[in-house]
Design goal:
The protein is of the alpha/beta class. It contains twelve helices and 21 strands. Ligand LLP binds next to helix 10 and helix 11.
Length: about 425
């Protein structure tokens, strides 16, 4: 964990005491440790033992320039799901040959942009349906310089039994009824369509079964389906890569026995057993690269004690961090100073100011005499990127630490501009 109590019981991120930082810094603010993100990426890449690979960082987890640039410098590629994310990845220096474009319903103009990048486009457009193959082929034909082919990869839906995923239903994607990926039964049709369209070049096969996986079992099962298909295509398609997706879980406080590198080692063993080591292995982690290396710092606005309950009302709400409201996710919440053994801690229900019952971060043991600030841990992924301006609230500020100091900051969004934008039409 990038954020922990130091020897003086002060909560610190990247070696910087948060109490010191927030003497002046406004709240709510996300704080990220760029060095820890860099180390996380390097540790994962080391698990490939020098074999050709791409760690295609799922940019949706955290789109902040300093984060994406840190991952680019650590040698990561990117998995993007919109033209805007593609622009972020490119502007942050990610090599187009290491960028894949996923998503079930890419717009024509998004496909066009992916085809127009650099001399050969991006590494692949990851196609999620038979229908999409035809749309990509049509976009190639519509291009002014119709010479280039589109590199595509088929994202297979391996229909992994949902019960083995051990994740929240809303973030499981590889089960039978999900909208994602090409069902196994449709793969022969998809291959026929690729063969029938000279505009398409099949370069990869992939799957992504879900997020916050805490065991490698379902991940390896899905990978095996992808690898079997790749093997059956020997001699028929010149594949560059197999992609086993992202989804590596992190420890939100209730444990996660599998480290990201364990997932990589497990699928590499399977890849070797299947005789496919000549293919590059792509993985698409988002959460595991950044979640533990970000915290959301909030100020306590007031307490409310009523009907024997204690509410701690903070200035961060579900618009800043949606995960608890949307997935009943639990994030640890801690004060800036570790409570001493003599400090009386009690159960507080920590809530935000938004007018929704689900604007609730759960029950937390915190000092009876409430702190001025709290830190919501493990919020580096799917925190800021899912934030909204609901209730006329600003998007939160962000602060980026590197080598023990603040390297970059971004202010909260301008609320006067928001008001003007709503009333000026
Ligand atoms: N690749 C594809 C095709 C994906 O759909 C996703 C995530 C990833 C990679 C990255 O998955 P990760 O390694 O981050 O688990 N907002 C949710 C998570 C949604 C994930 C959606 N797809 C959350 O806050 O838990």
């Amino acid at each position: 964990m990038a954020t922990k109590y130091d020897a003086d019981s002060c909560l610190a991120s990247g070696g910087v005491a948060l109490a010191q930082l927030f003497e002046r810094a406004p709240t709510p603010t996300y704080v990220y440790d760029l060095d820890a993100i860099d180390a996380e990426a390097r540790e994962l890449r080391a698990a490939f033992d020098g074999a050709p690979h791409v760690v295609a960082y799922a940019v949706k987890a955290n789109t902040a320039g300093p984060v994406v640039r840190a991952l680019a410098t650590a040698g990561c590629g990117a998995d993007v799901v919109s033209a805007a994310e593609l622009e972020v990845a490119l502007a942050c220096g990610i090599d187009p040959e290491r960028i894949v474009f996923s998503g079930v319903a890419k717009k024509d103009e998004e496909i066009d942009r992916a085809l127009a990048v650099g001399p050969r486009g991006i590494a692949a457009i990851q196609v999620e349906s038979v229908e999409e193959l035809q749309r990509v082929a049509a976009r190639v034909r519509a291009r002014a310089s119709a010479s280039r082919r589109a590199r595509v990869s088929l994202r297979i839906n391996p229909a992994v039994d949902e019960s083995t995923l051990a994740t929240h239903r809303h973030i499981a994607t590889g089960h039978d009824e999900a909208k994602f990926g090409i069902p196994f039964d449709d793969v022969p049709v998809a291959l026929e369509r690729v063969a029938a369209h000279p505009e398409l070049e099949l370069v990869g096969l992939g799957a992504h079964v879900g997020s916050q996986l805490t065991s490698t079992v379902a991940y390896v099962e899905a990978a095996r389906h992808v690898f079997e298909l790749a093997r059956s295509l020997r001699g028929r398609a010149a594949l560059r890569y197999v992609d086993t997706g992202g989804g590596f879980g992190i420890d939100y406080g209730d444990g996660c026995s599998a480290r990201p590198a364990d997932f990589v080692r497990a699928v590499r063993a399977e890849q070797r057993a299947m005789g496919l080591l000549d293919l590059e292995l792509f993985v698409e982690p988002g959460r595991s690269l950044v979640a533990a290396h970000g915290v959301l710092v909030a100020r306590v606005i007031q307490v409310k004690v009523a009907r024997e309950r204690r509410w701690l009302m903070i200035d961060a709400g579900m618009n800043d961090l949606l995960r608890p409201a949307l997935y009943q996710a639990r994030h640890r919440i801690v004060p800036f100073t570790r409570p001493a053994a003599s400090t009386k801690v009690v159960e507080w229900r920590v809530v935000g100011p938004v007018c929704e019952s689900s604007d609730d971060f759960g029950l937390h043991m915190l000092p009876e005499d409430p702190p001025n600030h709290v830190a919501i841990l493990d919020t580096g992924a799917y925190g800021f990127t899912m934030a909204s301006q609901y209730n006329g609230r600003a998007l939160p500020a962000e602060l980026f630490l590197k080598e023990g100091r603040v390297a970059h900051t971004s202010s909260a969004s301008n609320i006067d501009a928001w008001i003007a934008s709503r009333v000026s039409m």
